[in-house]
Design brief:
78 residues; alpha+beta; 5 helices
Length: 78
């Protein structure tokens, strides 16, 4: 059984800020929240890495790391 309404993107890995920081200890809760607070000016919003569902903020891990790479000048396109 297939679902034709699913977007072609296969990796739908969304995590809360807490889950993301536990899985990636190089990032702190405060650091992530700082980037989210300034998402309109730092390009995070345009990357699509942050999704809001009700009052919960979710991070798309793959897009977040692509955004990090882009900011660091590695040339990865988001």
């Amino acid at each position: 059984m297939t679902n034709d309404n699913v977007a072609p993107e296969a990796n739908w890995t969304y995590q809360t800020i807490k889950q993301f920081c536990q899985r990636n200890p190089a990032f702190t809760d405060g650091g992530i929240r700082h980037n989210i607070f300034f998402e309109k000016t730092n390009g995070l919003k345009e990357s699509g890495a942050i999704v809001r569902n009700g009052g919960r903020i979710l991070i798309h891990e793959e897009r977040f790391f692509a955004w990090i790479e882009k900011r660091s000048g590695k040339g990865v396109q988001v």
